[in-house]
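REQUEST FORM: STRUCTURE PREDICTION
Request ID: SP-0412
Submitted by: Lab K.M.
Chain count: 1
Length (residues): 270
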Amino acid sequence: MLTNHTIGFIGGGNMAEAIIKGLLAGGVQASNIMVAEPLAARREFLASKYAVAASESGPGVAGKADIIILAIKPQMAAGILSDLAPAITANKLVISIMAGISTSFIEEILSSGLRVVRVMPNAAALIQAAATAICPGRKADEEDLETTREIFSRVGTVVTTSEKLMDAVTGLSGSGPAYVFNFIEALSDAGVKNGLARDVSLALAVQTVLGAARMVSETGEHPALLKEKVTSPGGTTIAGLHILENGRFHGLVMDAVDSACLRSKELSGK
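STATUS: Completed
RESULT:
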């Protein structure tokens, strides 16, 4: 489906680059990808490394593309969308990865009847392992959602949700990598505390988290059941789990997601 489209990125930052890498790896031709980026050095980098067309003009890219991906900072949204409005006609699909910016906000600034899909990927898109949620605007149809899934499935896993739940997505998977990084660091520090060399401890911590995540993904079993299977009566694991429960580990993680979700709502003016 994507081979018949020209995809234009408004903004050429890290997330845009991650999506471009995924598209190219998935068979989309570089000649079908354009990027509007204000920084000359960044434009030159993207053009040189990925052979995509890079321009300083957002309206120029938006006018030529039939799928437009808004990869700009949320605080820049109003000004840039106003500049783009004359170039974005109702026959184009607009995909936004701007955190906290609603589809209705975009629809109000751009042309009436515009098809908008909102997307929340996370940092793991940089290694094509993102958790991404998508939701439709008022005019987006199933074909638009399928196009969006096709794009973002090239950088990880995609789920569809309603827009009212996008703040929850932000708190869970959007902010989630930082929680996991923190946990890996804590595991590694604990290994060092108990005598392991730093490099050895970090390698073990990383592979432990990676292996556990793959077990959940590949077995399809609930994490609670897998936990039970690796917890022997009177053994070391239950002793460690007891300490985590005493420290409200489960509740603290839930509180962290709640707090991030609340902050997402604040930033979006809800």
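NOTES: The mean pLDDT is 94.
Reviewed by: T.R.
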